[in-house]
Each structure stands twice: as C-alpha cells, then as structure tokens.
C-alpha cells in the first residue's frame, strides 16, 4: 500500500490533491500534502512508537506553550497499540533557521530570540501531562544498559582487550552512578533548525520535530543547543538563553555537555548498528579500534 493509500484508507473523505517528498531522517520520511500539511511516516517499529508519543504529547501541550508547535490533524492507525502508521500536521509558516538567516538578524532581535527560547523551555519543562504515555520517561541506566549490550555484540569482537576493558569501565561508571536530577518534559533534540522564522515579519513562527520528546533531565535541551552550534547559535547566544532561563548550575551543565560529546563515540556505534547506517558504523568502529578519546571523562557524578 502506498503512503497516499494509507492516508486515504484511514481518511476516505480527505482529498489528496498533491503529495511531495520532503526529507528523510533516522526515524521518518516527511511529505508535503496539499501544500498546507506535513505527513510523517515511520521507517521502523521504534519510529512508529516515537511518532505516537510525539503526536499525543503535541495534542496536549500545543495550547500550553508561548511558541506555536505543529497542530496534529491526522492520526494513522498502526497494527500495534501505542504506535502510529503516520501523523499529519499543519505546515508552519516561515522557514527553518539557518546560519545565513541568523547572521542577518540584529543584535537586538537575537536578544529577543534568546528570551523567546528561554520562555519556551521554561514552559515546556514545567508541563505535567494529564495522562501517562508509555515509553516517554527515559531512564539513563536502562538506556545505557541496552546500548552496552549492542557495544559488546558489535564492537567487542573488533577492538583490543585494553579498549574492551575501558568500555566496560565506562559503562560500570554510568550504571553505578546515582542520578539525582529531577526529570521533566524535554524536546531532546533542539537546535536552530527546529525553529521556523518569518523574515518578512521578523517573527518566530514555531518549533518543530518533537520526535525525541521525553521525560528526562532538563539539561539535555541545553546540551543539544550547545552541540548544534554549526546550525548558527554561538556560545554567546546559548549563554543568553541560559541566563534568561535562570539556569542555576552552569558548571554541571558543562560537565554533562563534555560527557555527552565524549560518549558520542560509543553512541555512534549503536546508532550505526540500529539504523543500519553502514558508513557511520564502520567509521565509529574504526575510531574505537584506534582508541577511546577523552576516557578521563568517565569519572561522572552527573
């Protein structure tokens, strides 16, 4: 069954006048339908579950945020409960922010933008959902334990005994650390490209891509922001967001960011394997064969 047929099967009275492929990521393919709607189709079972979480969270929070988020219009039934075959959203106006667009904005407008993003995070992080959603709470240790199993299966056969011991030490540290930070609703993949902006009105139009939304440590949103500087938001801008947000522990955030960057060399092996990205997997395995970079970061107490 084609993607258009899937939509028509669930919504027989809906007329598809046009359907154009837009993009594809790890989880989903996106299509523009009738020029004013965006439909996302999951590429695998885990993505179908994530799409369910994204859609149902958006349905609840869209009127509780100071910045517009996509309005869910269509929900495609999946065979499994707690999953979606597709989701259709209204298309936001404006365009995705790019380094070029950001460079064109005045210092005053960038300051206002930092305030707007901080207000968005404050609101998002304070939302308590009315009904629980399976899989939304993200447990650091459970996540790490699953990833360690993948690493042992995929990486251990091709790296030295010394590196295997280092990797085991890293996961022993993660799995025995006591995590005390409270969890809240987080975007979990935030960068400049998630923001839609209208050049004509000089206004922020909305925020997109809630596919990784979770209940987790709030600092992950700021870590994502820090690690997406190639998208145009520099350190000075992130510092403004943190100031307007009222972040109380920059040193701890810096430590989390450092560990996140360090851990990427292991996480990329997992991503390459799980999403069958052969190039990423081979590159990540080759890097591990050469040695783990920055292993001193494993003395975490975050």
TrEMBL record:
It comes from the Bacteria. Residues 20-249 form the Aminoglycoside phosphotransferase domain. This is Aminoglycoside phosphotransferase domain-containing protein.
């Amino acid at each position: 069954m084609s993607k258009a047929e899937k939509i028509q099967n669930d919504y027989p009275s809906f007329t598809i006048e046009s359907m154009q492929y837009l993009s594809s990521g790890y989880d989903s393919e996106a299509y523009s339908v009738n020029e004013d709607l965006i439909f996302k189709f999951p590429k695998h079972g885990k993505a179908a579950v994530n799409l369910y979480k994204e859609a149902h969270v958006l349905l609840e929070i869209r009127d509780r945020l100071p910045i517009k988020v996509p309005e869910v219009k269509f929900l495609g039934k999946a065979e499994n409960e707690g999953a979606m075959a597709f989701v259709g959203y209204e298309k936001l106006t404006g365009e995705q922010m790019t380094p070029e667009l950001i460079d064109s904005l005045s210092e005053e407008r960038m300051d206002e933008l930092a305030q707007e993003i901080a207000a968005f995070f404050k609101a998002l992080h304070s939302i308590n959902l009315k009904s629980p959603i399976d899989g939304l709470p993200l447990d650091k240790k459970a996540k790490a334990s699953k990833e360690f199993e993948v690493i042992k299966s995929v990486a251990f056969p091709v790296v030295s005994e010394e590196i295997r011991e280092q990797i085991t030490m890293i996961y022993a540290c993660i799995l025995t650390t006591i995590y005390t930070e409270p969890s809240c609703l987080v975007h979990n993949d935030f960068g400049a490209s998630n923001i839609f902006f209208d050049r004509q009105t000089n206004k922020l139009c909305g925020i997109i891509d809630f596919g990784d939304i979770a209940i987790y440590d709030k600092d992950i949103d700021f870590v994502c922001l820090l690690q997406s500087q190639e998208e145009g938001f520099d350190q000075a801008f992130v510092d403004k967001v943190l100031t307007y947000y009222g972040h109380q522990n920059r040193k701890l955030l810096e430590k989390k960011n450092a560990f996140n960057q360090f851990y990427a060399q292991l996480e990329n092996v997992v991503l390459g394997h799980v999403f069958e990205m052969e190039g990423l997997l081979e590159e990540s395995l080759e890097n591990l064969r050469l040695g783990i970079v920055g292993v001193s970061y494993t003395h975490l107490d975050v």
